[in-house]
Amino acid sequence: MKLYSELAEWWPLMSPHTEYEEEAGLYLEIIRRYHPNVKSAVEFGSGGGSNAYYLKQHFPMTLTDLSPEMLKVSRGLNPDCAHIEGDMRSLDLEKKFDLVFIHDAIMHFTDKGDLLQIMYNAKKHLNDDGILLVVPDQFKETFQTTTNHGGIDQGRRGMRYLEWTYDNDPDDNRTEAEYIYVMRDGQGQVFREFDHDESGLFSMPEWEGLLEQAGFKAMFERIDYKELEGTYFAVVAIPL
To answer: DSSP states of 102-152 as a string?
Structure first.
């Protein structure tokens, strides 16, 4: 997506970190339920670092992402965290953690083989009593067509977006999303961009089966967001 590359500098205006405080708190509750004494954590696909901004207040975090542009955004928000460029399917940090956290970056993978690689790599990076927490946006059981909008101003600069997420083919393992961005730069010039994304869509039994194949026992934890309609679950995976 353009938003993760040439438009990455606009990410804080599209999705400001202040919008993540509630969800980071909900994830922390789940983490503490399964591992009350996390002392080290790594996030695969950390993006702009908004969840890390809140979670790092409770344990040190290492942040990894495939996009150097998004890592630059995150460094501005989280200068106290280590940032490493790498693909979550294959990166090797040569150390282990109490927690591997993967937020919605997992949705960019539409192939089960890729998901399995990620799960194996997460297990390789976990201590024996560590946990993997994955927070997909959707499962086949919970998906619904949605339209979202948002964005903020910072001084003269501003951004607004419209997002439409739909399932073009119910028989495949993916959904589609269309984006319209309207941006105003510091000189007051307004320009527009269009973007497209595809996300993986798998059932909860498929997730459970893949995690078992990778050596995990999976649990599904319901998440109730105040501002989001719909049904959401996090996946907690414990090494077998």
So the answer is: E-GGGGG---HHHHHHHHHHHHHTEEEEEEEEE--S--TTT---EEEEE--
Band of residue 228 on the pLDDT scale cut at 50, 70, 90? confident
Task: Tell me the two tokens of residue 107.
Answer: 């949705």
Contact of 41 with 28, CB cutoff 8 Å? no
Nearest in space to 77 (alpha carbons), one of 12, 13, 137: 12
pLDDT tens-digit profile of 37-57?
A: 999 999 999 999 999 999 999
CB 123 within 8 A of CB 134: no
DSSP state for residue 40 in the 8-state scheme: -
Cα separation of 35 and 19, whole Å?
25
Predicted TM-score (pTM) of this structure = 0.96
Q: Please name each of the domains of the chain with its CATH number.
A: 2-139+202-239 (3.40.50.150), 146-200 (2.20.130.10)
**Residue range 171-198: mean pLDDT, rounded:** 97
- The answer to whether 51 and 71 are in contact (CB under 8 A) is no
